């Protein structure tokens, strides 16, 4: 009887924690689109979007572009830095033209998006 209660309680806890994580994920995914975003949730949202983009990129490009070893590891860090800089430059250009500037047009958010994408490709590309 006690074992049965513990199984139900364990299942309940797992489902509650799972739903809480999904709820956090949904809020994080929506955060970059809010007018006044929470910076931490927006970062999580861009990381999730980057990871999703990395997963989709594996459908088109299933293999690494860089050879195994130091270059691949360097690519994991250098490319997101370069992408973040490009996005910041694009944001400055858009601001100069008085166009709308999105969150991803800032270094941090561009970097986080690219880091999520690069991490998925680093781990899962063949």
Write a concise synopsis of the structure shown:
Helices cover 76% and strands 0% of the residues. By secondary structure, the protein is mainly alpha-helical.
Characterization of the model:
By secondary structure, the chain is mainly alpha-helical. It has helices spanning 2-30, 39-60, 70-96, 107-124. 22% of the residues are buried. The mean pLDDT is 82.
Q: From the alpha-carbon coordinates, what is the Rg to the nearest angstrom?
A: 19 Å
Helix content: over 70%
Fraction in beta strands:
under 5%
Question: What's the oligomerization state?
Answer: single chain
Number of strands: 0
List the helices and strands and how they pair.
Blueprint: H1 2-30, H2 39-60, H3 70-96, H4 107-124
Helix pairs in contact: 1-2, 2-4, 3-4
Features:
126 residues
């Amino acid at each position: 009887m006690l074992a049965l209660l513990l199984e139900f309680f364990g299942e309940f806890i797992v489902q509650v924690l799972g739903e809480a994580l999904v709820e956090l994920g949904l809020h994080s995914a929506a955060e970059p689109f809010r007018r006044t975003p929470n910076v931490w949730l927006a970062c999580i949202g861009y990381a999730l979007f980057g990871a999703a983009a990395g997963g989709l990129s594996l459908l088109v490009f299933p293999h690494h572009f860089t050879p195994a070893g130091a270059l691949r590891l360097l690519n994991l860090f250098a490319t997101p830095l370069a992408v973040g800089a490009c996005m910041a430059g694009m944001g400055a250009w858009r601001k100069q033209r008085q166009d709308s500037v999105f969150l991803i047009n800032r270094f941090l958010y561009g970097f986080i998006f690219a880091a999520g994408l690069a991490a998925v490709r680093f781990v899962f590309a063949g």
